[in-house]
Amino acid sequence: MKRNMFLDLSEYIPEFQFTDWEKLTPVVMEAGRYQEGQYILPMSYTTPITLFRKSEAPHTHSEDMTWDDMLAGGPALQAAAVMDSSIYQGCVFQPFTDLERDELAFSEEELLNFVKRKLQVYHELSEDVPDFFTRRLEVGFDVDLDPEKFDSDKSFSMIPIYSLQGGYGAMVVSFAAVNANTTQPEAAVFLTDYLLSEACQSSCLYAYATSSLAVPTMEGLMQEGKSGVSFEEGSWRMSQENYGTFASLREHIAWAEFCTPLGVELQQLFGDAQDSSQAKTLEELVHGAYMRMQMMVAES
Fold first, then answer.
1. Which residue among 98, 147, 161, 215 is buried most deeply as judged by most CB within 10 Å?
2. Model's pTM, two decimal places?
3. Nearest to 138 by CA among 211, 221, 84
4. What are phi and psi of 107, to 5 degrees?
């Protein structure tokens, strides 16, 4: 967007034929705005969550809770803070990158401190943690849970990873945009309009584009009595109780960023840090990862 690679869609959006713009999650769509224009249309997003039985670990979504608050909380909050090993664990840093300077928005010392504390709490977790399941917010999140643990009670608390600054964010997984140099802008916009429509976002086309590993930006889907979302086992919907919990999670998202390869580097760092056969010290591992991430940002 900063380099004018995409067409500003602002003047086209009011003429959309298929997309109900008012039903697209505002905070996620904001990630595709630059200055006064809408250049990118996020199609789907996710956020790392930990699922607990609501009866065992109730949670009220917050815009102020911090990662430190999670570590100071009970076993469920501590587990949600440190057990996730996905590429999205970088949500703890907000922002992750300083795009104005093309560099990471946190220091190597801050990364080292985060890794040390996460590993410490991970190893010190008490045996009082209720049954849980860590994963991303995605279509069909309750389908393949351990049946011995969750079949009898699938009313979930969805606890996100809160950031060091407070609140939690989402990661844009797929999006539509139009090349600024296109010779057929109307035809390209027509397609992006359809990609954001309810018909597409609940279809097998959507499921294929996202590998069902995210949720659509179109609100109102995935609940009983409404359009489901195409899934490998059919059309998937949440129970009304779980949809209400999901709606609360969505309502309190504070920001959205685009998923990048930086998350893979962070995931690898934690994998290496937990490897008992690793010859390098934690400081050396963090330094190497930090330098590689810095180069990735600078080269982007």
1. 215
2. 0.91
3. 211
4. -90, 165
